[in-house]
Amino acid sequence: MNHGAHFMAAIAYVWNERKQVKTPVRNKVIPLASEEQLLLVELVRSVSAMRTETVMQTVKEVLKQPPAIAKDKKHLSLEVCMLQFFYAYVQRIPVSSLVDSWPSLLALLKDSVPLGLPAPGQFLILGVLNEFILKNPNLESKKDQRELQDVTHKVVEAIGTIAGSSLEQTTWLRRNLEVKASPQIVVDGANLEADVEDLMLTVMEASSVTPSVYSVHALTLLAEVLAHLLDMVFYSDEKERVIPLLVNIMHYVVPYLRNHSAHNAPSYRACIQLLSSLSGYQYTRRAWKKEAFDLFMDHTFFQMDSSCVSHWRAIIDHLMTHDKTTFRDLMTRVAVAQSSSLSLFTNRDAELEQRAMLLKRLAFTIYSSEVDQYQKYLFQPAVFPINE
């Protein structure tokens, strides 16, 4: 099709003009398309010259070299609008068309990662990838499957980097990260780009630290799609390849979960949902077991929003149930605390506080488990000795 890139760029421009003023779903990372926008999808699908493969190739061309159009629009990102259209397009084409066009889709996904797209655009790339997996979880060729795994790894890593953008290093050590002191911004996905500039100006008036606008959205999106996506992309005999990627993601997640301040609450909620979803898959355990147990034993553990309790219950249940050593480790700590003084230099108040802390965690573990799951371990002399 002649001038295909300009045609698709015009579609992206009109897509932006036809967006909903208000979306019914708040804090949605990938906005829902309006009825008028969906008419554009049907328009493109009705053009005989715009086969699925051609659309994908043309979208890739627009992303690489956006035509000079509507530069007077202050908040318009042609690439993001193009990907919003393409995401809705992928949702509505037949599975057969999507599968037949896999080489073109793979090229689009691979080439988009190094382009440095705006964060909302990168979210849409992950959304497109997830849609493909939902529609076609298995590729016949091992080569195609390995390429799908590689591009998934790169796309998730890119989102992970955005997720960690509200963190900063406290020392020169790479692993030592903490949450920035600035407020975290949460805006509606439909208006991400339009609202960002004004919000940043407002926040920066009250804070000397530049806020990250997109970190909470990145964490939320990962919580929604990551666990199931990785489980589908990597087959049962390939799960080990997932661990390094998850370790890297947890490197960004744990600092948010250590911070119980009010300004970090949006990130904490998103991270606990992400960890909860990952914990449901036993093969991921190596990536989060130690960190989850350390967070559980932290003295600030119970300082959380009530909406996070159900997620922590799922995490603790998976943590204690999927092996025999973790619960025994907790019981050993409780037994030691109950049987003797923790240290020659520990005063009585500190010792009682430590006992209370451990008993609270034991109670929460039982609360998170099935009825009578740990009955055989409790009320044994080794756990609750009568020595006073």
UniProtKB/TrEMBL annotation:
Residues 85-378 form the DOP1-like C-terminal domain. GO terms for biological process: Golgi to endosome transport. It comes from the Eukaryota. One of its GO terms (cellular component) is endosome. It holds the Pfam family DOP1_C. This is DOP1 leucine zipper like protein A. It comes from Cyclopterus lumpus.
